[in-house]
Amino acid sequence: MPFHRITLGQFQCYALEDNSRIVDIRNEITQVSAKELLAAMKESGYDDFHVKIGFNNLLVKTPEFLILIDAGTGNDHLVDSLAEAGYAPEDIDYLVITHSDFDHIGGMDHFTKAKIVFPKSAYDLWTTAISRAKMIASFQEVFLKFLAPDFVAKGVEYREHYGAVKLPSLLSRIILVKEEEVFLPGMKMFATPGHRPDHFAVEITSDENTLLHIADGWRHKIQMLRREWYSIYDSYPEQMAESIGLVLKRAEEKEAMLFGAHFEWPGFQEWRG
User: Fold this and answer.
1) Among candidates 112, 116, 113, which has minimal Cα distance to 70?
2) DSSP secondary structure letters along the chain
3) What is the number of structural domains in the chain?
4) What is the pTM of this model?
5) Rounded to the nearest 10 degrees, what angle do helices 149-160 and 129-143 cross at?
6) Can you tell me the distance from the alpha carbon of 50 to that of 36, in angstroms, rounded to the nearest whole number?
7) Which structural domain, as residue segments, surrounds residue 69?
8) Domain containing residue 189: CATH number
9) What is the pLDDT of residues 40-82, one digit of tens each?
10) What is the distance between the alpha carbons of residues 24 and 14, in angstroms, rounded to a whole number?
11) For 132-155, how does the pLDDT look when each residue is reduced to its tens digit (9 = 90+)?
């Protein structure tokens, strides 16, 4: 599996590929006409409805630490990409979790020596019985409209396992952080709800160079032009449109590069106002 490296000030940032696939955008953004969708695709540089969806993870090497943002699906692909970049799972000092979808938490068991960074508000949602039940009910309500029951069941299984069982047992390794709190030099998280209620982005800064890891803040480039458009995988479209606006404003103010978990490989995108 490949990796791709860029320099951000004193940091080295590696995109690690966990997976990828070609999709027909018409099957994901279903609330608009094919004509409108094609026009937006062409405006964003595509020739047709087909786009490659990445499953990208970000590894950040600072002068002091090796930090992995999200844990992948749990298959061996991410570990293989990590090895290609010259590292092993036990080398990871910190594992930062942006939200609770299985393609972001499924590989947590690979990184047994890492401290685990969670936004406190997201941790509370996962581990409080009433909040967790509401999250699962919301997940089922949205996804059963579009996706196979076994996909929904898998998502529910991960939430139950990690929320009710796994996270409390990992408490000695977990670091809970507040929104906008600098939890490591040059790194903080900020809430971007919409895709999920517990969704966070990560701001990474070194020598006044900034990268915004938006996780699943949006899935396709066309959503930067049409913020009100959402994919079948997004739970709260109105919140998501607002969060996209907040991220783009921050990117403009800081002239930040963007990194998306589902952008086309390698997931980096230059900010262009």
Assistant:
1) 116
2) --EEEEEETTEEEEEEEEEEEEEEGGGT--SS-HHHHHHHHHHTT-SSSEEEEEEEEEEEE-SS-EEEE---SSSSHHHHHHHHTT--GGG-SEEE-----HHHHTTGGG-TTSEEEEEHHHHHHHHSHHHHHHHHHHHHHHHTTTS-HHHHHHHHHHHHIIIIIIHHHTGGGEEEE-TT-EEETTEEEEE-TTSSTT-EEEEEEETTEEEEEEETS-SSTHHHH-TT---TT-S-HHHHHHHHHHHHHHHHHHT-EEEETTSSTT-EE----
3) 1
4) 0.92
5) 170
6) 15
7) 3-269
8) 3.60.15.10
9) 999 988 999 999 888 999 999 999 999 999 999 888 899 999 9
10) 28
11) 877 777 777 777 766 677 777 777
Amino acid in the structure at residue 205 = T
Residue located via tokens 């996909």:
151
